[in-house]
Amino acid sequence: MHKIVDNKILKAILIQGKPVLLEIGGKANFLEIRILSGEPNFEITSAIKDYIIDWLDLDRDLEPFYQLLSQHSQLSYMAEEFHGLRIISTPDLFEALCWSVTGQQINLTFAYKLKRRLVEKYGSHIEFENRIFHIFPSHARLAGADPAELRSMQFSSKKAEYIISIAKLFATEQLSKEILLSLPDLEARQKMLMSVKGIGIWTANYALMKSLKEQSSIPYGDAGLLQALLIHNIITDKKDGLQIRNFFQEMRGWESYVVFYLWRSLAKKPG
Fold it and tell me: Which has the closest alpha carbon to 241: 214, 255, 221?
């Protein structure tokens, strides 16, 4: 759904229902955005700016977070080593939920294969300079999908059922990002998501973290998170829930960023 070419991101998105291909590159202390395909006007370019700010979490001041990290002996190195790293969100709640359902109880490599098949089969795309840039399928498109087709792409019967049923909830406006945002707190949002078949606490927290940027939304039980906590000697036992909760109490207000940085630490090269 996006490509990196010459340190620039090429990504196709829907803006106000219209497909647009963007090139995003860094220039000193700012980003330079080029519209490679699409029909720009003031409203479109303004919506693109808002999308990128949301997607890359650009309006958040990270200095208080770095100050918090600097006070923690095991994590203080992150303030310098990962300086500037921001949570890359999934602005589309429907996509975030489909991805988290797809990734349940399978390895990341296989999850990516499934998502690619789903996107190529049901999503729209933009062709530019002999390359194809895909856009995640709409909930209206997946609401009418045949479960047998998803099973033929190696989705389990349950996952096929869950994704189609979630798409139908969005298509009938029983679930949306706006509805969740209208609820009073994290607990209410978790409760609403978990009332949907196929969405447990991990899936709900992941989607809330990635789409609504709920800072206190922690995907407890995530294998990568638990491994990183062990590596940093923050916990001694993956099953010690009290130890994990006590740690995140110390990180109140920045829990999701701590999770994101811990995930990033797993890709850190030795030495």
Answer: 221
The ranges assigned to domains in the chain are 1-56, 93-124+137-265
Query: Which of 50, 92, 185, 222 is flagged as catalytic?
Result: 222
Chain centroid offset of residue 269 CA: 23
Is the predicted pLDDT of residue 270 greater than 70, yes or no?
Answer: no
Helical ranges in the chain per DSSP H: 42-55, 63-70, 78-81, 93-102, 108-122, 139-143, 147-152, 157-171, 177-181, 186-194, 201-211, 223-231, 241-250, 255-265
* Region at 268 (left for phi over 0; alpha for psi -120 to 50; beta for the rest): beta
CATH says 93-124+137-265 is which class? mainly alpha
Q: Model confidence at 113, in pLDDT bands (50, 70, 90)? A: very high
Kindly calculate the radius of gyration of the chain based on its CA atoms and give it in whole angstroms: 19
In degrees and rounded to multiples of 5, residue 22 shows phi and psi of: -110, 150
pTM assigned to the model: 0.90
Active site residue 240: no
Q: Which of 21-35, 177-191, 214-228 has the highest mean pLDDT?
A: 177-191
Weakest mean pLDDT among 15-19, 121-125, 197-201: 15-19
Q: If you search the block for the tokens 């988290």, which residue do you land on?
A: 100
**Closest Cα to residue 29, out of 87, 84, 86, 88?**
84
The pLDDT tens digits for 139-156 are 999 999 999 999 999 999
Burial (Cβ within 10 Å: 0-12, 13-18, ≥19) of residue 121: middle
Do 185 and 235 form a contact (C-beta atoms < 8 A)? no
Query: What pLDDT, on the 0 to 100 scale, is given for residue 268?
Result: 67
**Secondary structure class of 21 (helix, strand, coil):** strand
